[in-house]
Backbone:
């Protein structure tokens, strides 16, 4: 239970593990110079999720863990 409470405190959602590859692809695309809008549209089609969901995932994965949450 304590582990789940800590994960929830960091903003982790149980389905997040599904999107690790999506985020890795996003980072690679950005390093290559692709624009965010293009990355989101591409990843949305590739992973079968809405563009809004991709933005949500990116926002959540970009956040750093806070000291208090860990």
Residues:
């Amino acid at each position: 239970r304590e582990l789940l409470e800590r994960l929830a405190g960091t903003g982790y959602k149980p389905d997040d593990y599904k999107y690790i590859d999506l985020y890795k692809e996003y980072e690679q695309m950005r390093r290559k110079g692709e624009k965010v809008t293009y990355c989101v549209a591409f990843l949305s089609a590739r992973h079968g999720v809405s563009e809004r969901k991709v933005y949500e995932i990116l926002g959540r994965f970009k956040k750093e863990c806070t000291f208090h949450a860990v």
